[in-house]
Amino acid sequence: MQLYHNSFFSMGTRFNAVFAHPDQYTCDEVFQSIYTEILRIEGRLSYFDKSSDLSRINETACKQFVPLDDELFEIISTCVDYSTLTSGSYDVTMRYLHETGKTEAYRPKTVKEKILIDKTNKSLKLADENIKIDLGGYGKGYALQQVQKIIAQTKIENGIISFGESSVWAWGKHPAGKDWRLGIKDLYNQGKSVTEIDLYNKSVSISSNYFTSDDGKLINKKHIINPKEAAIGNDVKITAVISESPVQAEILSTAFMNMKDEEIKNTLAGFAGVEALLIKYNNNKAEIKQI
Amino acid sequence: MLSINRRTFLKRLSIATGAVIAANSVPWLSVFNDKTFAKGPNDRVRLGFIGIGDRGRVLLLNVLSFEKQLNVEVAAICDNYPPNYERAIKMTGGNAKPFKDYRELLAMKDLDGVIVATPLTEHAHIVIDALNAGLHVFCEKSMARTVPDAKKMYDEHLNAKRILQIGHQRMFSPIYLTAIDRIANGDIGQLTHVKAYWHRNGDWRRPVPSGHPELDRVINWRLYKDLSAGLFTELLSHHLQVACWFKKSFPVSVVANGGLLYWKKNREVYDHISCLYAFADDSQFVYDSINSNKHYGCEIQILGSKGTMEMEVNKYYPEEVPTPPGILQLINDVENGIFDTIPIGGASWIPETAATTKGSRILENNKEDESKLELEAFSRFIRKGSAPEELSVQGYYTTVWTLLAEQAADTKERVVMDEKYRI
Asked: How many separate domains does chain B show?
């Protein structure tokens, strides 16, 4: 079986597609559709691109209600709803603390208090000028969801997509005939896996307070802040959430970084068919817990 | 990342890594390593300026900035438009001998070279007169309003055995020179395509003193077809020269279109043009320029099989994304019929530098002014008595193919160069 492989940069990381399909021309056509769609999403949702739709909302919505189109309304409503479903552990408004480091005066508010949504008019208002929406813990999941829709229209029955290695969706079978088996990389032993996950028409999102490069270097960009405590996690841990929905996996893996084990268990009980792994490092050794 | 220190940069390009490049693409750079000139009046390079409007003023300022350092003297200035004439006298502190008639300036006995920055139709006869007077010439681009005039200028420079340097300043830009170096080193793979555009939103018209309508053609010469080819000679020529230089060849044919779409009043030259040049290797240079929208600005894109360079914004984008080791292993496993774990899931991958995903600078920390460097080179060439012929050749063929594009747009025909203009 000949594999088709192609890649591009997006959302600050790399996107890799592998299709197990004999027609390379078809694969390339599909890949181009995916590339275009993900660049479109990035152009809408980027926090850093000052011309993005999200930046326009962040710039203007503290003064007045801003109307949203269907896609943006759906995206932001989903984020607000998941904040409630995770008891506030998923919060897309923590960018201000990340940028300013002003945690002393921080007073927790619910996301619903910070992002005011008018469902009737499909519009939103941000509670004050310090509230900014950052969809960093959402975008790759949404991108994979859109990829799922594109693939569903094609004859490519088997493949795997890796978005930055932390968001992976696999469908169909490995060409050798079994489910796609994914290794979760050991942060302290390059080339080794701490555990394995079998994926069949499922996605996995892996969150960590660290980023990594190909030479195994760990970088803590302090990008995950616990909304309840305004605390930046320094302990080395990974949460992995497996779900049919890449969006759900992306959101829950981010939220679970801010939750205690028992909270994760209770939250997970509300989501049928979703699994989670919690990997904590103690003296550079991984302790794995399936929840 | 490349960072620039002027001396090391020039040395690196002209001597070290650039041994091959210097010989083929940038032979004019080695002159910057010449430090043998004396500081006394006997070794002073004496220059005259003819035409000191907007562009001439910039050139004059640049030469004044290195007069002492390089033992150069602006000995004479000439402009027949009174405001420019008076301004040039002030700029030179009254030290340069002023003229209103260039022929009187050329009659000076002790000049070494002249810098010509007059309106386009004045170039040919002034340059030819200057060469005949035994002077080296730096002439702003484009060379001439007609192809025969450009040929006469080029031939006269050979006959007179004097330098004829045409002001294509990008040939002296550290960013462009670094790009040439990096392309030679394979950074973009095979250079397959060049695309450029220059978009502005304005009528290109300069104010004329009230009560003096007769000055309109003097000041707004770029808008009148007998005086200028408009967007062809004023803008296209910049990027066409870069395309030819980077591709190491000149076109074999051109098709073009042009029209007066938006600024229809008081203007004869097109306000939007597009050109498609073909080269002998079947590659192309695609260009357009318009005066009714500025959103995309000005850019020349150098496209290769392994990367892209956006020259005007100093950006390089690799075509390839580093493949995750896990994906490489998967591909290898499948090729060998093996089922195994794909070791890919983990903390988000980020590149060593954010520039990897957003493009990186072709050259870091460039502080050099390319117009100043080209004039500095001219003064050094004069002292040496010669300049690399490629400088004249680039200027000549760029002008020829710029004017042939205008012809293609006017006639709606594919145009090739008459063999009598081959040099």
From this structure: 2
Residue A150: which of A161, A139, A137 has the closest Cα?
A161
Select the residue from A3, A34, A221 to test the B interface by mutation, using most B Cβ atoms within 10 A: A3
Return the CATH number at B76: 3.40.50.720
Cross-chain residue pair A8–B321, CB shorter than 8 Å: yes
The residue segments making up the domain with residue B378 are 6-171+370-392
Q: Are residues B120 and B232 in the same domain?
A: no
Do residues B342 and B29 lie in contact, with contact meaning Cβ atoms separated by under 8 Å?
Answer: no
Contact A236, A249 (CB under 8 A): no
Of residues B90 and A136, more confidence is placed in: B90
Q: Cβ–Cβ of A13/B348 closer than 8 Å? A: yes
Question: What pTM was computed for the model?
Answer: 0.81
Give the three-class secondary structure for B190.
coil
CB atoms within 10 A of CB B152: 16
CA–CA min distance B334, chain A (Å)? 7
Q: Which of A64-73, A90-99, A115-124, B110-119 has the lowest mean pLDDT?
A: A90-99
**Domain presence at residue B26:** yes
Q: Are residues B102 and B154 in the same domain?
A: yes
What is the helix (H) or strand (E) element at residue B372, kind and residue range?
Answer: helix B370-384
CB contacts of B331 in chain A (<8 Å) are 3, 5, 18
Determine if the peptide bond prior to B142 is cis (ω within 30°). yes
